[in-house]
Every structure is written in C-alpha cells, then in structure tokens.
Write a structure and sequence with these properties.
By secondary structure, the protein is an alpha/beta fold. Helices cover 26% and strands 35% of the residues.
Length: 191
C-alpha cells in the first residue's frame, strides 16, 4: 500500500506531463468504495457461530451435531436472527421480525438505511456494527431497550431522539452500537 501511494506521488516527477495531482482525491474515494464493496461480509455471524460452537463443544465434546467436527450449523441457527445491510449509493429499508435477534452489520456508503427493530426481541446483550461513510442510518427501537453507543464519529454524529422520560429500561435487553460514522449520521428513534 505504501509503495502504491509513494509511486503515485512520484509519477509526476518521472513523467511531468501526466498531472496526476488533480486525480489524487478521486482515486482515494474510489479505493475506499472498492474496499467496502469487496470486503468480507457476515463478520458478526461468523463471530456468533464461533462463540456458539465453542460453547457447544465445551458442553458436548463428542456430539455428532458439533459444528467443529461435522461442518454443519447448530439447529437453532437462523439467518433471520442477524441483520446484514449494505447500502452503496442507494437506500435499504428493513423490518426485523426475529424473536431471538442476535445483532449484525450495517454499512452505508453514500447511501442510507432504515432499520425497524420494534417487532424483534432478544435477551441479554447484542452488538450491531454500524459503518457510515457519507451516509446515514435510522434505527427504530422499542423504548425499553438500553441502547449503548460505542460509535467513533469523525465529522459525523449519533443522535438519540428517543423519549425515555418515564420509561423503565430493561437491564436484560442491551443493544450496543459499535463502529464508525464518518461524514454521516446515525439516528435512533422509538415510537
């Protein structure tokens, strides 16, 4: 990576007629976009499956349903329990209906996503990894959920617009928002 960047800056000294200095920022933005499109998906799912299979292996080391030995998924695994949204130059609206929601990934690059979690349910602590670059995410959550914000904001922000006056937060339902918000925004609402 350093050789490519250094070579890009040195091309004007090798061939002065190219005038690449005006193309530096478009090349950087295109590289970031290609990186988002080509990145591996389902990170959260793999993390959950690894945790679940390790837990199952501790309880039943010789079980034939162990994903480590058979290569199959646990019986209670369902793709609807996770959310995986990628919005690049567009918009995505998604309603989550799972009663055993386990988290997921949301990526918005110059686009937007709207996630409605009011029909979903879970117990314990779940993590949603949110990455916004020049984009936005609107999340609608029940008012009793405890939403913890661990977002790193760079020229962006996270706005919690929930009305929590007089509402008792359920300590068994903790939603952790993790990730990065650069030149974008995340809005949290409840109705």
């Amino acid at each position: 990576m350093f050789l490519l960047v250094g070579g890009l800056f040195l091309t004007n000294q090798i061939n002065p007629s190219l005038h690449l200095e005006r193309y530096i920022w478009p090349i950087i933005l295109i590289s970031i976009g290609i990186g988002f499109i080509l990145r591996p998906r389902h990170r959260q799912w793999r993390r959950w499956r690894g945790y679940h299979s390790n837990d199952q292996m501790r309880q039943e080391p010789d079980s034939p349903a162990n994903p480590e030995t058979t290569g199959t998924l646990p019986n209670d695994y369902d793709r609807r329990d996770f959310i995986d949204v990628t919005a690049v130059f567009g918009g995505v609206k998604k309603n989550v209906l799972s009663k055993s929601f386990k988290g997921g990934d949301i990526t918005s690059f110059m686009g937007g996503s709207e996630i409605d979690l009011t029909q979903s349910d879970f117990t314990g602590k779940i993590i949603i990894d949110v990455t916004n670059i020049f984009g936005g995410t609107k999340m609608i959550v029940p008012p009793t959920w405890d939403v913890q914000n661990d977002i790193t904001a760079i020229f962006g922000g996270v706005d919690d617009k929930r009305q929590i006056n007089g509402v008792t937060l359920d300590p068994n339902k903790v939603l952790v928002l993790d990730g990065t918000c650069m030149f974008g925004g995340i809005e949290i609402r409840s109705f």
